[in-house]
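> forwarded from #structure-qc
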């Protein structure tokens, strides 16, 4: 069930200085502009009481919002820049995972609308806008299982219902074969843990992401992969990730 957003939610997602400007404008409005306006009739006593009382209240609200907005922005930046591996990404909370993805897309030039409240929101965690194109994003911080096809179908249904042309599902692990098959040929991008690690590394102020301790999942069967070294052929001597179930599965990921 979709949740109603408040003005406070919207302002927190805007740059902090916008709330500060609103606070200053409100202060000038009730302190300077309003007293200079001549009001006649029955509304005069009412407004003369209401405006001086409400003015300071809204100034306070806007100032508090500016502080929250600045802190929210700083914290997301720190969250992105502090990631060191796929493991560190998997260790963040589900809400911080959403903030991590949100900041990553913001640094890539997208306008991002976040879902700041806890709980489900009709399958949509982020709404991205860039070049007049809207993208719905679902974030899945699942540590013990792969993302099933039902998640992709739900997002696709929302895309059709809202007439949105593009969707993205981001997870810290992997997707099932059925999920990847369903997304194939549709305007849905699946970003697994390995791709997310690369995305985070590409937008960090100082790249801290390391692959040395990460064991990826096989793109074919989702089993853990092991580090191997080619012994023959044109890649002889080079390391690569090979499926731990080899020779049953011959999945390979380049390093």
């Amino acid at each position: 069930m979709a949740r109603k957003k408040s003005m406070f939610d919207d302002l927190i997602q805007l740059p902090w200085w916008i709330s500060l400007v609103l606070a200053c404008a409100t202060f000038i409005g009730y302190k300077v502009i309003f007293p200079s306006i001549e009001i006649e009739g029955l509304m005069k006593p009412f407004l003369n009481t209401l405006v001086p009382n409400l003015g300071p209240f809204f100034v306070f609200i806007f100032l508090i919002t500016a502080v929250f907005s600045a802190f929210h922005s700083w914290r997301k930046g720190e969250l992105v820049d502090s990631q060191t591996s796929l493991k560190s990404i998997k260790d963040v909370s589900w809400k911080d995972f959403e903030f991590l993805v949100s900041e990553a897309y913001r640094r890539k030039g997208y306008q991002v609308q976040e879902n700041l409240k806890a709980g489900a929101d009709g399958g949509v965690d982020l709404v991205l806008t860039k070049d007049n194109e809207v993208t719905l994003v679902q974030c899945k911080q699942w540590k013990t299982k792969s993302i099933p096809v039902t998640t992709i179908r739900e997002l696709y249904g929302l895309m059709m219902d809202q007439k949105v042309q593009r969707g993205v599902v981001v997870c810290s692990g992997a997707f099932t074969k059925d999920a990847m098959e369903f997304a194939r040929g549709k305007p849905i991008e699946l970003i697994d843990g390995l791709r997310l690690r690369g995305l985070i590394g590409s937008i960090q102020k100082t790249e801290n992401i390391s692959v040395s301790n990460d064991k990826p999942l096989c793109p074919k069967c989702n089993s853990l992969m092991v580090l191997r070294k080619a012994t023959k052929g044109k890649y002889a001597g080079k390391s690569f990730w090979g499926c731990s179930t080899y020779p049953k599965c011959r999945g390979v990921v380049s390093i």
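QC bot note: The chain has a mean pLDDT of 86. The beta strands are 111-114, 126-130, 133-140, 166-171, 188-191, 225-229, 239-243, 252-254.
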